[in-house]
Amino acid sequence: MASSTQPVTSSIPVYKAKFLQSCLSANVLTFGTYTLKSGRRIPLCCSTLLELYRLDPQTWSSVSYSFNRKEAKDHGEGGGIVGASLEDKNVLVIDDVITAGTAMRETIDLVAKAGGKIVGFVVAVDRMEKIPGPREREEGIDDGKPRMSAMGQIKLEYGVRTASIVTLDDLIAILKDKGDNGDMNRLEEYRKTYLATD
User: Which among 41, 98, 99, 129 is least buried, having the fewest CB atoms inside 10 angstroms?
Assistant: First the structure.
């Protein structure tokens, strides 16, 4: 098996391979069983904006960023938004992953209350998974029924564009190229169980 810090020749586009290689080598992307909802959005937002500016300074030089904190403060800047005002702004939301769309819905409400308009959502990794069904939300048991992804549902419900930097398929491809069959097989099994219909 290749080391997670060694570059690999990949069957996916170079930018995706570099992104995944960077995430793997920095242990930003790890494998295991996790309970999500960390609220850590600042580094992804800042680094994404900096990279966009590096690629196209003319387009991105006048773009500012904000992030929401876990809990609103009643002192200092106050409120739930840190950074640039969202009032009368078009907002592109950047997040690490999406599962059920709960955080996206909360963000839509938060941005609307702040006077902004969401024009799109970008996630770093699209796990391509179906939204949890009622039984899974209540008991943690998948009912095996096909459903669309949270990104697909958000796009349908709110009419906003959604995109990802990489997908679960890309991650599986790079693990296959590296010869990492253990993690690749676990992800393929996960995909078989939870793959969305869209």
Answer: 99
